[in-house]
Amino acid sequence: MTEPIPLRILIDGTNMAHRDFHAAGLDRIASITRRRMQAFREQWKPERVMAAFDLSEKTFRHELHADYKAGRTPPPEIDSAIQTCQESLLDSCVDVVSSPGFEADDVIATLTRIALQRGRRVLVYSADKDLHQLITPGSVTQLTACRREHNELRCVWQTDETLQKKFGVRASQWIDFRTMTGDSSDNLPGIARIGADTAR
Fold first, then answer.
1. What are the two backbone dihedrals, phi and then psi, of residue 114, each rounded to the nearest 5 degrees?
2. Among the four 2, 16, 149, 189, which has the fewest Cβ within 10 Å?
3. pTM metric for this prediction
4. Mind listing the pLDDT tens digit for each residue in 127-156?
5. DSSP 3-state assignment of 167?
């Protein structure tokens, strides 16, 4: 009998902490994080779980585009939310990683490549659309949301098929698509007069 391919779960910790903070408040982040990690392990039995976080310093993107993420004003409590999330992850035996000059999604992309080179499957947990480019049929899947209902996880997945259905492009075309359309949430302009339909 063929042994199952080991799975690594890579979490966008910054994205997760922000979403949990806005959905449930600072006081509930620790318990939400612990329960989610327990559910992930019970559901998928990964060989390793890692969470990547942004650092407060600027990244190489700011050197490429001076107005990158200009206009964003995070709530003052978000630093405490991130710290609480990191502590809960460490309590749950999850590796917490960051890299100066890079964002969490850059770290996740690097860890994904390493995992694939070592013959692993990867589950990326993040609602960040930038990570759609990592999706690889049969190897890398993106989980954008989940909640537990009656001891069962209800999940929202992003795959090559869901990207085609929602955006009209495949994961392998995602970088070109987003380059043309831009990203208003990061204050990144696309190509003038090219919208999603033309980009597709």
1. -60, -45
2. 2
3. 0.90
4. 999 999 999 999 999 999 998 887 778 999
5. helix
